[in-house]
Amino acid sequence: MKIHFFANNTKEAQEALELLTGKIGQNELERSDIIVALGGDGTLLSALRASARCPLPIYGMNKGSVGFMMNNFDPDSLIENIQKGERVIIRPLNMTATTIDGKVEKAIAFNEVSLLRQVRQAAKIKISIDGIERMSELICDGILVATPAGSTAYNLSAHGPIIPLPSQLLALTPISAFRPRRWKGALIPSKSKIRFDILTPESRPVSTTADDFEVRNIQSVEIEESKDIHRELLFNADHSFEERILKEQFSW
């Protein structure tokens, strides 16, 4: 098995990288069978983006602060855990953002696409799903669209629902909604095409972020699940990703 190790720059991750490459060796990305990411969930996302031209399976080992999508750091059982690992397919979101000066920016997001106000005034956003207006005006700090894989990240912190991976749903979650005050968001089919239009974008500017790619002063954002891109994540058989999602829903 040819492994390419991808590590965070923290002391802990770099020490783990030195240990593992000393035991197993380091292979070039283009000649590898799998990527092992060392760090936290952010490191795994960085590995996904960095390997876009070589879409290899990724096995994460936790050397970060949260590591919800990471496996425990167990260097002695690494090869065995990879061979017996449970494979989970994830699909990113395609984001197309248009700025107020007409510039179009595109990016993908494995966790979520979020919109946030840039000034002290709340954002005013119109929501359309598959070409049908569903909310004429949401007054809020922001809103996000989360994938099942990303539903336990920013989405959960914003009180959005946790989504099991096979459900083929996306979470549409408001961030500090002011009007309608009691709207808690929606679950929509993953095949849906979502559009956000910013109302009065000059006086109430809004930015959008696809994972960590930000576009400021947007006029509109269109989001849909990618039909062409998918990646494989590996999880230890004795602690599957589905089990983690279930456990998270019963934690306090």
How is this structure best described in words?
- This protein is of the alpha+beta class.
- It folds into two domains: 108 residues, Probable inorganic polyphosphate/atp-NAD kinase, domain 1 (Rossmann fold), CATH 3.40.50; 133 residues, Probable inorganic polyphosphate/atp-NAD kinase, domain 2 (Tumour Suppressor Smad4, Sandwich).
- The protein has five helices and 17 strands.
- It has a six-stranded antiparallel β-sheet with strand order 6-5-16-13-8-9, with no helix packed on it.
- Helix 1 links the parallel strand 1 and strand 2.
- The mean pLDDT is 93.
What topology emerges from the helices and strands here?
Elements lengths: L2 E5 L3 H14 L9 E6 L1 H10 L7 E5 L15 H7 L1 E5 L2 E7 L4 E6 L2 E6 L5 E7 L2 E9 L1 E5 L7 H4 L11 E7 L10 E4 L4 E5 L7 E5 L2 E3 L2 E8 L5 E5 L5 H9 L3
Parallel strand pairs: 1-2, 2-3, 3-17
Antiparallel strand pairs: 4-17, 5-6, 5-16, 7-10, 7-14, 8-9, 8-13, 10-11, 11-12, 13-16, 14-15
DSSP helix fraction: 10-25%
Uncertain residue segments: none
- The secondary-structure element order is EHEHEHEEEEEEEHEEEEEEEH
Shape: elongated
Name the CATH homologous superfamily of the largest domain. Answer: Probable inorganic polyphosphate/atp-NAD kinase, domain 2
Strand portion: 35-45%
Give a quick account of the main beta sheet: strands, pairing sense, barrel closure: 6 strands, antiparallel
Quick check: average pLDDT? 93
Extended strand count: 17
Structural class: alpha+beta
Give the number of helices.
5
Q: What is the class of the largest domain in the CATH system?
A: Mainly Beta
What is the topology, as strand order, of the major beta sheet? 6-5-16-13-8-9
How far apart are the termini? 40 Å
Using only CA atoms, what is the Rg?
Answer: 19 Å
